[in-house]
Amino acid sequence: MTHVEHGFGPVWDDKSQVLVLGSMPSPKSREMRFYYGHKRNRFWPVMAAVFHDDTCLCEGMDAESTVAERRDFALRHHMALWDVIASCDIAGASDASIRNVVANDLAPLIGASHIDHIFTTGAKAAQLYRRLCAPALARSGCRRPAMTQLPSTSPANAGMRLSDLIDAYTVVAQAAGGSSAD
Question: 8: closest CA among 35, 36, 44?
Answer without folding.
Answer: 35
